[in-house]
Amino acid sequence: MLLQFRNITRGWIATIIVGLVGLATVLFLIPNSGFNIGGSNAVANVGGRDITPPELTREMELTLRGERANGNNISQQEAVDAGLHLRLLEGMINRVAMYVYADKVGVSASDLMVANRIREIPAVHNAVTGAFDETSYEAFLQQMRYTQPEFERDVRGDLTTQMLIQSLATGIRAPSSFGALTYAFDSETRVISVAEAPASAVGTIPQPNDAQVQAFYEDNEQALRLPEFRALTLVYARPSDFAGRVEVPEARIREEFDARVATLTQPERRTYVRITATSETQANDIAARLNRGESAAAVAQALGLQVTRGENQTQAEVPDDAVGAAVFSARVRGPAVAARASLSPFVVVRVESSTPAVTPTYAEHRDELRNAIAADEAHDLLSSAISAFEEARAGGASLADAARANGLPTVTIAAVEAGGRDQQGRPVEALAGSEQVLSVAFQTAEGEATDFTPAGDADVIAGVDRIIPASVRPLAEVRAELVEGWIQRERARRLRELGEQITAAVNGGQTLAQAAAANRARVVVASRTLDRRSAMQGLPQGLASQTFGAAEGAAISEVGRAGVLVAVVEHINRPDISAADPQILEATRTYAERPCLQQALQAGAPPYCGVSTSVMEAIQGEIVSSANPRRNEAVITSVYRASNATDEEGQ
User: Fold this and answer.
1) From residue 100, how far is each of 38, 223, 491, 620 by CA, in Å?
2) What is residue 28's predicted lDDT score, i.e. its pLDDT?
3) Most buried among 22, 122, 266, 459, by the most CB within 10 A?
4) In the prediction, which pLDDT does 444 show?
5) Are strands 269-277 and 346-355 parallel, antiparallel or unpaired?
6) DSSP 278
7) Comparing C-alpha atoms, which of 596, 586, 508, 599 is closest to residue 554?
8) 596: Cβ contacts below 8 Å, ≥ 6 apart
9) How many beta carbons lie within 10 A of that of residue 301, not counting itself?
10) Spatial CB neighbours of 385, under 8 Å, sequence gap ≥ 6
11) What is the pLDDT of residues 586-635, one digit of tens each?
12) What is the 3-state secondary structure (H, E, C) of 347-359?
């Protein structure tokens, strides 16, 4: 499915993402050249199913929307220049290939599964009731730029793919040799000594000259690039801004109270037990036994009768009118009462508790009614103000003037980028929670305004007063930063050379102590035994990985913030696999079947994992290949033109 859809539905779609983790890796299994699809406007065809330019454009727009929400302001042209459309197309080819394969083998998610999955999307729920709402669903589809059949087709495809992957992955088993590999990896230790040369060992780094600063500036232009900014005028249409202007006469409030008093009245409610009797004599006997202290359940069981309970019911809610009259005439927690019933010969009732009736008073409901009336009239005033505002704009008034003339509040924003931050990198408070307004504003031309867009409790128009194009920060503005960056780079280079000198001396026959002393360094760790986990935790990451990749006796170096570290691998201790407990080897074998978690690998966990993922990648690669994906290079080049493309390339 789509990146933006996954973000919105991350609670349930995460399961599908895990199942589809292998799909991304098969991108490289598919040739980039492909074949042109003669006579077709599709960008690709997979197993007879077309992928159209609007579908790919939608995928790209939703991806860029997600990037902008994370503060990465990337225009569509920049994305095309970077090849994003091609990467997204490969992902779509992979998904469609799985859909085609599912159709071929006759596997499909049911309508009920699709409906249940869609109902799990928060955006399709009514904000008040929390239930699925057709209007909210339609709005969600419009936001995603999907038709209902398209969206439900893709949801069905993703669910079906998940089912396929789960069935294909069942029973995958890592070989027994993987247990020995994992055990050997996890149990190996190394004895190392480490020397450190501080940053001061390379002396003071001189200031760069103008030519060096200019060259460093040119090398880092991309990092110094400023995104496009826009100056906006926001116009807010909120009923609350008009509520204070409404005068509600007391007589109007009293009239509303009189009209609602019946619905505001809360009748008395009672909780009771009832036993159905077959005769008056039996009813009187039941009442006597209850009044002597026997429980209703015990009496009913002894006589083979039915006992029921009414919880917090009004008289109108009691199923039998005659029983209702008996319940509400009996004394609360008083004697049991026998009475004739309409639906059975006789009943016995005993009232356990009562919630008194509540009669509304004007005073307690006055403010509530006044605010409700004011809110209704505020909506009417707002509608009139919006109509007058639109007429003023049509007559030539500016956005701000038309708003002020009709009481609509405005906010002016000097500059904001697509992620909602100003030119100093701070979030623009006026746009908090208004991502959709900002998104539409960045699709609107300079001098134009958006339509009203919902944002919280308001509808907002954004007028684009000025577009400040993307640019590179001028050299004069960033010179101090560049000088500091150049000095840091030069210091790192000199430290790297110093580390290479020390390692060369050690590899040439000197002891670490001798080589360190000759190069203004000192030994800080002497002959310490480390396993992979303790190395990851106690050494810089680069040095830790080199330590367990180097041969015995080898010297290695790593530049850090404080200076350069040089380590010597003095001895390697490898475990005796033949003496290992078979149960431990089996436990480590099963580790190989688990997915590879990046956090665990970074902490020093064995890399022999992900067997099931690797097998699934191979299976999915075959599925994609058998779908014979064909790319229409002519259409791709024509629709998604690079900014440096010639006229011939775009035709």
Assistant:
1) 21, 43, 57, 12
2) 29
3) 22
4) 92
5) antiparallel
6) S
7) 508
8) 607, 609, 610, 613
9) 11
10) 237, 242, 406, 407, 408
11) 877 776 666 666 666 666 666 656 666 666 667 777 888 888 999 988 88
12) EEEEEEEEECCEC
Distant-in-sequence contacts of 382-385, Cβ < 8 A, 24+ apart = 382/237, 382/238, 382/239, 382/241, 382/242, 385/237, 385/242
Please give the distance of CA 299 from its chain centroid, rounded to a whole number. 59
Nearest CA to 566 among 490, 509, 489, 507? 507
What's residue 509's pLDDT? Answer: 92
- Given a contact cutoff of 8 angstroms between Cβ atoms, the answer to whether 320 and 343 are in contact is yes
Give yes or no for a contact between 475 and 482, defined as CB atoms under 8 angstroms apart: yes
What is the mean predicted confidence (pLDDT) over 192-207? 93
- Residue 630, H or E segment: strand 630-631
Which of the 8 DSSP states describes residue 144? H
In order, the DSSP letters of 582-601 are: HHHHHHHHHHTTSPPPHHHH
Three-state DSSP at 182 gives helix
Residue 173 CB contacts under 8 Å (≥ 6 apart), including other chains: 593
The C-alpha atoms of residue 113 and residue 119 are separated, in whole angstroms, by 10
CA distance linking residue 196 with residue 499, whole number of Å: 9
pLDDT band at 15 (very low <50, low <70, confident <90, very high): very low
- Token pair listed for 319: 């199923």
Give ∠ CA 52-53-57 in degrees, rounded to 5: 125
Lowest mean pLDDT among 151-160, 494-503, 563-572, 592-601: 592-601
The pLDDT of residue 213 is: 92
Instruction: Report phi then psi at 354, rounded to 5.
Output: -145, 140
What does the block give as tokens for 611?
A: 């067997």
Q: Establish how many alpha carbons lie within 13 A of residue 530's alpha carbon, considering only the half-sphere containing its beta carbon.
A: 25
Q: Look at residues 442, 463, 454 and name the one whose alpha carbon lies nearest to residue 393.
A: 463
Distance CA 463, CA 177 (A): 67
- Residues 119-161: tens digit of each pLDDT: 898 888 876 667 788 888 888 888 888 888 889 999 998 888 8
Q: What's at 523, amino acid-wise? A: V
What are the backbone dihedrals phi and psi of residue 234, each rounded to the nearest 5 degrees, phi first? -100, 135
Residue 555 · residue 501 · CB < 8 Å:
no
Element (H, E) at 249: none
CA distance linking residue 96 with residue 383, whole number of Å: 47
Alpha carbon distance 440, 447 (integer Å): 14
Distance CA(516)–CA(498), nearest Å, equals: 10
Tens-digit pLDDT profile for residues 448-463: 999 998 888 888 999 9
Please return the burial class of 517, using the count of CB atoms within 10 Å of its CB with bins 0-12, 13-18 and 19+: middle
Contact 389, 397 (CB under 8 A): no
Query: Which residues, 6 or more positions from 256, have their beta carbon under 8 angstroms from its beta carbon?
Result: 369, 372, 373
Query: Which structure tokens are listed for 50?
Result: 């077309």
Q: Which two tokens stand for residue 176?
A: 């027994």
Cβ atoms of residues 217 and 482 within 8 Å = yes
